[in-house]
Amino acid sequence: MADALLNESAGILNININQGTDFPLGITWEDTAAGPIDITGYSAKMQVKKQANMCSEALISLDDTNGGGIVLGGVAGTIDISITADVNILTAGSYHYDLELTEPGGSKFKLIRGTFNVISGVTS
Q1: Are 28 and 76 a contacting pair, CB within 8 Å?
Q2: How many whole angstroms separate alpha carbon 29 and alpha carbon 99?
Q3: What is the C-alpha separation between 123 and 119, in angstroms, rounded?
Q4: Which residues neighbour 78 within 8 Å (Cβ) at sequence distance 6 or greater?
Q5: What is the dihedral of CA 31, 69, 103, 51, to 10 degrees?
Q6: The pTM is what?
Q7: N or C: which end of the chain has fewer CB within 10 A?
Q8: Where are the domains of the chain?
Q9: Cα–Cα separations (whole angstroms), residue 8 to 5, 51, 100, 109, 112
Q10: What value does the mean pLDDT of the chain take?
Q11: What is the CATH number of domain 2-119?
């Protein structure tokens, strides 16, 4: 079932995050029947950039390695993303991000993408 979804373009999820705060995001990748897709053996990477292109410098980089900010939930199809306040030091404004998954066989695809809006903070 996942193979059919891999050929579709990435879903769009625009993110609003408060400057200098912790930001948790939990998503579940589901098939067309709303059942979770097994992501056992997958890896994940997410980057936030000022411009939406591969040559732009990553301002935030997360991955599913130990403590890398992404935790994959295997058969449950869950993807938990955590951006901590010490990582969330971007200037207020609009950025771009995408979340890339890599299958056990090595095929890569974008699961979600969108704008990453940092809302100015007042309290430090």
Answers
A1: yes
A2: 12
A3: 12
A4: 26, 27, 28, 29, 36, 71, 72
A5: 90
A6: 0.87
A7: C
A8: 2-119
A9: 5, 23, 13, 9, 11
A10: 90
A11: 2.60.40.10
Query: For residue 123, what pLDDT band results from cuts at 50, 70 and 90?
Result: confident
DSSP code for 87:
T
Amino acid occupying residue 59: L
Helix (H, G, I), strand (E, B) or coil at 75: helix
CA 44 to chain centre: 8
**Strand ranges (E), the chain:** 11-12, 15-18, 23-28, 43-49, 58-63, 70-72, 78-83, 93-102, 108-119
Nearest CA-CA partner of 57 in 29, 90, 30, 12: 90
- The single residue listed with the structure tokens 């890339």 is 100
- The amino acid at 72: L
| End-to-end CA gap in the chain | 47
User: Which parts of the chain fold into alpha helices (H)?
Assistant: 2-6
Q: What percent of the chain has pLDDT over 90?
A: 74
